[in-house]
Every structure is written in C-alpha cells, then in structure tokens.
Design a protein that fits this description.
With about 280 residues, this protein is of the alpha/beta class. Helices cover about 45% and strands about 15% of the residues. It folds into two domains: about 230 residues, 3-Layer(aba) Sandwich (Rossmann fold); about 40 residues, no CATH class.
C-alpha cells in the first residue's frame, strides 16, 4: 500500500503543533512533515542560528506554511512560558506537542564520567522536558474546560538507550529512562483532561553527521564494548539489528505522527520503539 500524499493527509490540517529541538535534524524534519500536512507550527530551539535555518528551509519547501519560531531554553521556566504564551497568541490553543529537545552529553565509561555533565544531561533531558510538558499541558487543560470534546496529544522523545543501557552513555541512558517513567505517570494524570501522552524511542538512525559522530565518539571512548575503529563500530551496531539496516529520520517522524494523530486515539502511556527490532522483547 502506498503512502497518502501530504496534501491528502488531513489528520493535522489546521492543528497547532509545538516542536522543541526544532533546529536539529529530527525537529526540522518534523516541521517539514507537519507543515506539508497543513499544521500550524511553533518551532522552538535554544540555537537561534539553527532555528532560523529550519524556518528558512520550511518556508522554501512549503511557501504557504504557517510557522513561527521562538528561541527557547527548556531549562528556564520563564523562557518556556514566554514561548508557550507567544504560540497561543499567534495560533491559539496548542493541539499537539512533540517534546523533542535533548542533549546527548559526554560519551565515557562510568568511572570517568563527569558529574557536571551528568547533571547537565539530566537538567536538559528530564527537568527541561517536564517543564515543557507541564507548561503546554496547562495550556491544553485550560482549553479543555471550554471545549470538552477537544483532543490533545503529547509525544516525548526517549531512546532505546533507556531500554538497553548503552555503555559509556550513563547520563543519556538514565535521562531517557526517566522520560519513559515520566510519560507513563503524566499519561495517567492528564487523561482526565483529554490529553494523551506517549513516547518514541529511536535507535541507529542515519546515515549522516550524527550517526558518524557517535560512532567516532564510541570508538574513542575506551569502552571495551566498542571497537577502536569507527567503521567497525558502525558495522557491529548494524549487525545487531535484525533488519540489518539503519532507520531513517522520516521513519521516526512518521511514528511520531501516528502517536500524535487520532490513528492512536486509544493509546496513552505507551513507548513506541523504532529500532529495526534491536531491542525486541525489552520493554
């Protein structure tokens, strides 16, 4: 069965979506995907240059798109609140949130891992994600009171690292595991407000700079779990995937879209793993 052309996909037409980490590869692809389907997009990122690039690329590809951007630091509650208020003023109530901003942090064995970096990863990936989730959920819940039939959805970006405990990435893996717990807890708390909350857990997505860079960092980490040659690291990872290939950013975004749409209307508190079967059976 062929995919529905974007112009015929009405799931997101006229909906208002907030995407954090919009200056990165995943967030940028998300802006393009939802923009092509008629969504109104509020794009957030702490990196103004990357955010401006995203807006320019989206506008070039979709001239009629409705998109606004806010430079936003997810670790600063005032910054998040200002962005959410600005989004509401421009496009009205937020229908969907892709809570996607994150920080990989240092790649080093546990005995060498920086406590400062560990705290920074947790602050961005956990506290920052919760700050965005809570602020947006308050906007959604307030709108729910005046429109009891309205539906709202949130997707948090987690990672297969939370399920497998990736070596030399203790902070990142720990933060993503916290996101999975956050997703389940908030899904229960927010269900009475008509808000569904789910998570997406990608792994081995590429090719591209991030894929190559992570293999280089793993190779140089000194961990006995990785070869010292980046190409050998990459080959070993792909050999561990039952589907024997990398996933694409588009495949991740399509999975996010499923969780944000009414296609998953009876699903909340769920973690959708996008990893070619690498962590099959681990949940």
């Amino acid at each position: 069965m062929t995919s529905i052309p974007p112009e015929q996909d009405t799931r997101f037409r006229g909906k208002h979506i907030v995407i954090t980490g919009a200056g990165g590869n995943f967030g940028r692809e998300g802006c393009i995907y939802f923009g092509k389907r008629g969504a109104k997009i509020t794009a957030l990122d702490v990196n103004k240059i990357a955010l401006d690039e995203t807006k320019a690329i989206v506008k070039k590809e979709i001239p009629a798109v409705q998109i606004i951007t806010f430079v936003c630091n997810v670790t600063d509650p005032d910054s998040v609140l200002a962005a959410v208020k600005g989004a509401d003023t421009e496009f009205g109530t937020i229908d969907m949130l892709w809570n996607n901003a994150g920080y990989q942090g240092q790649i080093a064995p546990t005995l060498e891992y920086s406590l400062t970096d560990f705290a920074n990863v947790m602050n961005i990936n956990v506290t920052g994600m919760f700050t965005v989730l809570q602020t947006v959920a308050k906007n959604m819940a307030a709108a729910k009171k005046s429109d009891d039939g309205h539906k709202f959805t949130i997707v948090n970006t987690a990672s297969v690292a939370a399920l497998r405990g990736t070596p030399a990435m203790v902070a990142y893996a720990s933060s993503k595991a916290a996101i999975l717990a956050m997703t389940v807890s908030t899904a229960k708390d927010l269900a009475p407000h008509g808000i569904r909350v789910n998570a997406i857990s990608p792994a081995l997505i590429g090719p591209g700079f991030m894929w190559d860079r992570q293999n280089q960092l793993h190779a140089s980490s000194g961990s006995p779990y990785f070869a010292t040659d980046p190409d050998a690291v990459a080959k070993g990872k792909i050999n561990g995937v039952p589907m024997k290939r990398l996933g694409s950013i588009e495949e991740v975004v399509k999975s996010v879209a499923y969780l944000l749409s009414d296609d998953s209307s009876y699903t909340t508190g769920f973690n959708l793993v996008v990893d070619g079967g690498m962590s099959a059976g681990i949940r």
